[in-house]
């Protein structure tokens, strides 16, 4: 019986490695039994002698690939092939040898530890692994040691924990360290295999250094004209630490300029920016001294013994003189003046001075953009503002002026100040009716009847408020005024009954006065119409002419009749205008060039026997021709005196007469500057192309030659074919 065999790994012999022997009690040694092997690697990695049962390994075996193999063995009868015993299972275990060195999972480690750490502070732990069997011998027992990095660091042999070995390691002296760790198996004994790794260790910063100013005294300069908030310079304390451990807060702790200057910490640059807190004046003070402190904002209590973590420096600030503009005695001025003051009255005075030691003279002026109407003026020497035009509160109650002050020696350097002028009210306006009143009284009104309630307004604004009094300018027998004592009054009738046929309109003068000083009053006239009213007092008609109209003709009928009359008048006027336009219609209707128009007369003459159509005697008797008349189809730009043409003899030929008239028109300066149509009722025979008319074709057809028409261009091709073809046909016939 068996259950386990052992085999040494990495066998280097030339023969197969012997594993063990299988044997059955049924084996008589006569070779009748046959041993069979099956399972992991049977037949390939492991073989068995079927007669003797010896098992061998055919090649080297690596335990790290597989630590054990499970196989099954059986003995059968060689002749019948039947098993003589049940199948049995056994295990072949591979014995380990030290053939693997320790390895680290990473070639390079990165670690950090705070500077100034105490001895023994843990930095990082490194761990190596060994593929050998830890349960068999010391092949997998690893011991750690440090090959590089002493005396700053050490490593625990069993755990691989790296610790600090020196006290007070300062980052400012050295920040980076490289440590080499070795891992060796076989418990670190001779013959053991080993592996190494590198650990890069960085010392992290702690606040172990206070800030320090590089200079004990710092000098700065600032012009006296620098506005509040202006940065005049910076101070900076250096700190060997980094990050938040180097953050510094600056403040002014002492000096004679603590109320004149501020200091602000610039976080990104760790500088202290000194700014102006109050306006400076060279003439008042020229030098300020400040004591500035810089202190770390994050202090580690463990390093209090290295403190204090702050430093101080002296900052001296010199104020430089600048030619400053004038300074007014106030930031603004308010003057009040009554609107009835005389022209040239001084309403107030502005004052300014030169803050410089030279104390130059000041010249004052008004910004005319703030006084476009030039109501005010200013004395350039003493700053007195006076009126140059009358004031009227009702037009403008406030005037906002701007006064400019400039040094005479340096007029470009100016200062402005606002001046507010308030115009005080004077009772210089009389009250008037608040609105226009359309007042009427019914014909059937009774005495004491209210016909209108009136009120008044006043442009003035007295301190005690408005108070008006109403009365009649004279005693009126028809109407009276009753003051309501609330700035209104009632108009009442004084008698019964009114007749619009007798008097259609009454004028009632009403006197309105105020109660301010001096008292102002005005007279307003109410126009009161007499109207017909119904029983309820509602107005129906106020026209006196309505009484004369027949009772049977309504207002609508009158309106219709009036419209018909207007329409007839319009038709008559249009007809007359069209008729006049037709009479004055010119011969040439188109405004375009007359050469492009054809004038059609739509009539036909009566031939030679028609002596009424045209009198040719007129051509032969120029004396009968009337004086020249201005043409109707053009408007001459310049009119010239018509020249009288000398009379031609009675026997003058028509041709000579026409040529004479043509020459006269060519030299006439009053002729139009463009071509116009002129009818001479005569045709000459001097044309180069001769006549194209067919009137004389019967006598001259045989002598005509139309070949030249082909030379006139494509527009005359059709005409040339017509006449040229006709001749050819005639010749051939």
Automatic annotation (TrEMBL):
Where is this protein found? Cell membrane
Q: Which residues cross the membrane?
A: 547-578
Q: Does the keyword Transmembrane helix apply?
A: yes
A GO term for molecular function: beta-catenin binding
Q: Which domain of life is it from?
A: Eukaryota
Query: Sorted alphabetically, which keywords does the UniProt record give?
Result: Calcium, Cell adhesion, Cell membrane, Cleavage on pair of basic residues, Glycoprotein, Membrane, Metal-binding, Repeat, Signal, Transmembrane, Transmembrane helix
Query: Does the keyword Transferase feature in the UniProt annotation?
Result: no
Return the GO cellular component terms, semicolon-separated: adherens junction; catenin complex
Could you provide one GO biological process annotation from this protein's UniProt record? adherens junction organization
Principal location class: membrane
Q: How does it sit in the membrane?
A: Single-pass type I membrane protein
Q: Which InterPro entries match?
A: Cadherin, Cadherin-like_dom, Cadherin-like_sf, Cadherin_CS, Cadherin_Y-type_LIR, Catenin-bd_sf
| One Pfam match | CADH_Y-type_LIR
Q: Start and end of every Cadherin domain?
A: 24-104, 105-213, 214-328, 329-433, 433-547
Known function: Cadherins are calcium-dependent cell adhesion proteins. They preferentially interact with themselves in a homophilic manner in connecting cells; cadherins may thus contribute to the sorting of heterogeneous cell types.
Name of the protein this chain belongs to: Cadherin-10
């Amino acid at each position: 019986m068996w259950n386990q065999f052992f085999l040494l790994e990495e066998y280097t012999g030339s023969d197969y490695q012997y594993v063990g022997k299988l044997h059955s009690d049924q084996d008589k040694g006569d070779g009748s039994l046959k041993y069979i092997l099956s399972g992991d690697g049977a037949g390939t990695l492991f073989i068995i002698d079927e007669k003797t049962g010896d098992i061998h390994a055919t090649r080297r075996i690596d335990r790290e690939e597989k630590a054990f193999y499970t196989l099954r063995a059986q003995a059968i009868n060689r002749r019948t092939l039947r098993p003589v015993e049940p199948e049995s299972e056994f295990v072949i275990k591979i014995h380990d040898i030290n053939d693997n060195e320790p390895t680290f999972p990473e070639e390079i480690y990165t670690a950090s530890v705070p500077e100034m750490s105490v001895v023994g502070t843990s930095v990082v732990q490194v761990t190596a692994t060994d593929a050998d069997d830890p349960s068999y011998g010391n092949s997998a027992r690893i011991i750690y040691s440090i090959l590089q990095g002493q005396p700053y660091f050490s490593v625990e042999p069993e755990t691989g924990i790296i610790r600090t070995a020196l006290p007070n390691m300062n980052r400012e002296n050295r920040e980076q360290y490289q440590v080499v760790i070795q891992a060796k198996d076989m418990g670190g004994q001779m013959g053991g295999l080993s592996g190494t790794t590198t650990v890069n260790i960085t010392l992290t910063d702690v606040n172990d250094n206070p800030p320090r100013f590089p200079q004990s005294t710092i000098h700065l300069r600032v012009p006296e004209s620098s506005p509040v908030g202006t940065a005049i310079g910076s101070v900076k304390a250096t700190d060997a630490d980094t990050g938040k451990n180097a953050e510094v807060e600056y403040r002014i702790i002492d000096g004679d300029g603590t109320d004149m200057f501020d200091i602000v910490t610039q976080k990104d640059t760790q500088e202290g920016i000194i700014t102006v807190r109050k306006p400076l004046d060279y003439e008042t003070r020229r030098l300020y001294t400040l004591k500035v402190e810089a202190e770390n904002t994050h202090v580690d209590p463990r390093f209090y013994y290295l403190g204090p973590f702050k430093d101080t420096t002296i900052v001296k600030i010199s104020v430089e003189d600048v030619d400053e503009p004038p300074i007014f005695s106030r930031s603004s001025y308010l003057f009040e003046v009554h609107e009835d003051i005389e022209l040239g009255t001084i309403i107030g005075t502005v004052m300014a001075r030169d803050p410089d030691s030279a104390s130059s003279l000041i010249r004052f002026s008004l910004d005319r953009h703030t006084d476009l109407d030039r109501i005010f003026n200013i004395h350039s020497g003493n700053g007195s503002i006076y009126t140059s035009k009358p004031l009227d509160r009702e037009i403008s109650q406030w005037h906002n002026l701007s006064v400019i002050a400039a040094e005479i020696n340096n007029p470009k350097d100016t200062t402005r100040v606002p001046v507010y002028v308030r115009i005080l009210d004077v009772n210089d306006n009389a009250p008037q009716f608040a609105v226009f009143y359309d007042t009427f009284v019914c014909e059937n009104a009774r005495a004491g009847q209210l016909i209108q309630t009136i009120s008044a307004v006043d442009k003035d604004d007295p301190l005690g408020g408005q108070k008006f009094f109403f009365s009649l300018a004279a005693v009126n027998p028809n109407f009276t005024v009753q003051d309501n004592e609330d700035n209104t009054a009632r108009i009442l009738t004084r008698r019964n009954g009114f007749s619009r046929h007798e008097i259609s309109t009454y004028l009632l003068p009403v006197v309105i006065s105020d109660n301010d000083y001096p008292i102002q009053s005005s007279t307003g006239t109410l126009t009161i119409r007499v109207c017909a009213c119904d029983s309820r007092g509602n107005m129906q008609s106020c026209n006196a002419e309505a009484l004369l109209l027949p009772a049977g003709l309504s207002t609508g009928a009158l309106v219709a009749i009036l419209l018909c009359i207007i329409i007839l008048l319009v038709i008559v006027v249009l007809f007359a205008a069209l008729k006049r336009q037709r009479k004055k219609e010119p011969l040439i209707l188109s405004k375009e060039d007359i050469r492009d128009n054809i004038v059609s007369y739509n009539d036909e003459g009566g031939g030679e026997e028609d002596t009424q159509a045209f009198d040719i005697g007129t051509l032969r008797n120029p004396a009968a021709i009337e004086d020249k008349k201005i043409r109707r189809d053009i408007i001459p730009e310049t009119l010239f005196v018509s020249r009288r043409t000398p009379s031609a003899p009675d026997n003058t030929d028509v041709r000579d007469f026409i040529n004479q008239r043509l020459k006269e028109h060519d030299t006439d300066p009053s002729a139009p500057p463009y071509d116009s149509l002129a009818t001479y009722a005569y045709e000459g025979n001097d044309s180069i192309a001769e006549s194209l008319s067919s009137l004389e074709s019967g006598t001259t057809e045989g002598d005509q030659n139309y070949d030249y028409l082909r030379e006139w261009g494509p527009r005359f091709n059709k005409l040339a074919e017509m006449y040229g073809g006709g001749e050819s046909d005639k010749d051939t016939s």
